[in-house]
Each structure stands twice: as structure tokens, then as C-alpha cells.
Specification:
The protein has 339 residues and is of the alpha/beta class. It folds into three domains: 136 residues, P-loop containing nucleotide triphosphate hydrolases (Rossmann fold); 66 residues, Orthogonal Bundle (Helicase, Ruva Protein, domain 3), CATH 1.10.8.60; 118 residues, Zinc Finger, Delta Prime, domain 3, CATH 1.20.272. The protein is 56% helix and 11% strand. Helix 12 runs antiparallel to helix 15.
Length: 339
């Protein structure tokens, strides 16, 4: 059975389904949906949790082995299978189908597949899972859907936003749900439950965080190297996760590279729409692009990929120094120097 994310809470109030498949490329919703299943499983006596990371070379026989394994500590077990690829292949399909044909009553299976291909949803293993379990897709929010999600989030935290508050916060986060969730939590901590008007929101944005992830790409785009380093130092001192800083820089660079490429062919409107560049920023982006060549921006994106490996501990080095070098080079490019 296929359900929407907003239906999950009510669904979990009943007996857990034998299998859950959560897929989609929006990490906040995916993580919160998985956490909800874990909490419900624990409340219903599934106290043990077995984690299987399905990476290249994964032995699919482990799924059946873990399902059959008895524990000394709990009769009930939640098996969490994390898929890292867009498709699970023939062996994986057979393993999941076999599990679904004969699910162990004392087990529940949760499959997380953030990169699952759309056409994979027509595969036999998904159809078999659909017969006995729950499928849920998470999606990126845009426009009015994002505004509605933010308003619901505020109300769930006890805040009563006046008209226009959710719209203003939506403009600030520009589609980034983790950032939106962080802002909502900050507002709850600042003001507690009750009414939330635009003045309070603006005050929290301007006073509560002089520097944040959204200031960094703007400072770099404006060529303000000193401000870039002040922001990075503040973010590091406040304990901001380097992965979020990398996300902000890579997101800006992907947008710049796409718009730069489109501008060479006489059209930028589609690139602006694709990368959700607000109208208020478009003229500033076009002015800044006079300092960059498409190749230079693509080179910075390659360095972002290297920084990602650094953050994951696959290469040596200080992550903050790596991020500072990328941001500095984005801010430091001068007209004619990288064209």
C-alpha cells in the first residue's frame, strides 16, 4: 500500500506492517519517517535493531540470515536495510521477494532507498513488497507546498504564525528543508508557544544569527573575501556541521555553472527556474558571473567532490581549511582572471 508522508503517523498507530520502503531524495523527511518507524517498533516491543548497509558487493544472503537469527535479548527485531544504489539488481530483487513471500512474524523490515530510480518501482520486488507492506515517497517541496509544510511545522511546535510568516520563512530557506526545520526550532526556543508575527520572525533572523549558511554564498558571490572568512569562522565556532557548509557552497556553484552555461547559449531563464534562483537575486548572479568562466566553476565543483571525500574521512586534511579555500577562490575571482 502506498501512503503519503502526512499519513505515516496515523498508520503507525496500528500494528506495524511486515515491510516498509521509504524512498526519495529529500533527506529530512526520509530521516524523520525512518525515526518514526523505529520509535513505533520500539513501542510495540521490537527492541532489537539490525542494520544492513547495502553497498557494492553486498551479500544478499545476509538478509535471510539476519531474519532467521534469534536473539538472546529480544524476540522481536527491526531490520533496517539501507540501499545506496539506484537499483538493487537481480540478486537483491530475489532476496527481497523471498523475504516478502515468507516474512518472519517477529521481525519488521525497513528499507531506505534515497536514490531509487523511478523505473525500479515497477520491479517485481517492489510489487511484492507493495502486496504486504507500505511504500512512502518523500519529495522536495517548492512554492506553496513548501509554505504549507513550514506552516504545519510551526503549528506542530506550538507556534501560531500570522499570515505571511510562512511565506517569508520560505523565501529565506529557498527550498532547503533542513534549514527550515532549524529555523522553526530556533523560533520555538526563542519565543515558546504562541503567536508569531512577521516582526518577531525578522528579529530572530537578523539578531539570532548574524552569519549563517545563507550569508556565505552571498558573500562569496559578492567577492567579499574578508566577510567570507568571518562567516566561516563564526560557523565553525558555533559548531555548524561542515557538511552543511559544503552543501551551501556546492549548491551555489551548481547554480552558477548551469546559469553560466545557459548564458553562453543566449538563455538563462530555464536555469534560474531549475535551480530556484529567486528574482531578487538574478541580476546579482548575472553581474557576478562576469568574473567566472564555466570551466572555472566546474573546477570548483570538482573540488567540492574532493571536499566531500575529506569530510567522510577518506582523505587527510582539515575540513574547514578545505571549505575555506573553495569559498575564498569563489570570492576572490576577479573579472578577466578566470575567463
Amino acid at each position: 500500500m502506498r501512503i503519503q508522508p502526512q499519513q505515516l503517523a496515523d498508520n503507525l498507530k496500528h500494528k506495524l506492517a511486515p515491510v516498509y520502503l521509504f524512498y526519495g531524495d529529500e533527506p529530512l523527511q526520509l530521516g524523520e519517517a525512518a525515526a518514526a518507524v523505529r520509535a513505533a517498533a520500539c513501542a510495540q516491543g521490537f527492541e532489537e535493531r539490525e542494520l544492513l548497509e547495502c553497498e557494492p558487493g553486498f551479500d544478499w544472503g545476509r538478509l535471510a540470515a539476519v531474519a532467521a537469527m534469534r536473539s538472546l535479548f529480544s524476540d522481536r527485531k527491526l531490520i533496517e536495510l539501507r540501499l545506496t544504489a539506484a537499483r538493487i539488481g537481480r540478486e537483491g530483487s530475489e532476496a527481497v521477494r523471498a523475504y516478502c513471500r515468507n516474512p518472519v512474524g517477529d521481525n519488521r523490515l525497513l528499507i531506505l532507498a534515497p536514490d531509487l530510480e523511478r523505473r525500479e518501482l515497477q520491479a517485481k520486488w517492489v510489487q511484492e513488497l507493495d502486496r504486504i507492506g507500505i511504500l512512502l515517497q518523500v519529495r522536495q517541496f517548492q512554492g506553496r507546498r513548501l509554505v504549507a509544510w513550514i506552516e504545519q511545522r510551526l503549528r506542530e511546535r506550538g507556534l501560531r504564525p500570522e499570515p505571511g510568516v510562512a511565506d517569508l520563512l520560505s523565501e529565506r530557506v529557498e527550498g532547503n528543508l533542513p534549514a527550515a526545520a532549524q529555523e522553526v526550532e530556533k523560533l520555538r526556543l526563542l519565543y515558546g508557544e504562541g503567536d508569531l508575527d512577521r516582526e518577531r520572525l525578522v528579529s530572530a533572523i537578523s539578531d539570532g544569527a548574524r552569519y549563517d549558511l545563507f550569508d556565505l554564498p552571498d558573500a562569496a558571490l559578492g567577492g567579499d573575501r574578508a566577510r567570507v572568512h568571518r562567516i566561516l569562522n563564526t560557523l565553525a565556532a558555533e559548531g555548524t556541521a561542515p557538511a552543511l557548509v559544503l552543501w551551501a557552497l556546492a549548491r551555489e556553484l551548481r547554480m552558477l555553472a548551469a546559469v553560466s552555461h545557459a548564458a553562453q547559449r543566449g538563455g538563462t531563464a530555464a536555469a534560474f527556474r531549475l535551480h530556484k534562483v529567486w528574482e531578487s537575486r538574478q541580476s546579482r548572479v548575472l553581474v557576478a558571473l562576469k568574473r567566472f568562466s564555466t570551466e572555472y566553476l566546474q573546477d570548483l565543483l570538482v573540488r567540492c567532490a574532493a571536499a566531500d571525500r575529506n569530510l567522510k574521512g577518506l582523505t587527510a586534511g582539515d575540513p574547514w581549511q578545505t571549505l575555506a579555500a573553495i569559498a575564498d577562490d569563489l570570492a576572490g575571482a576577479r573579472q578577466g582572471e578566470h575567463t
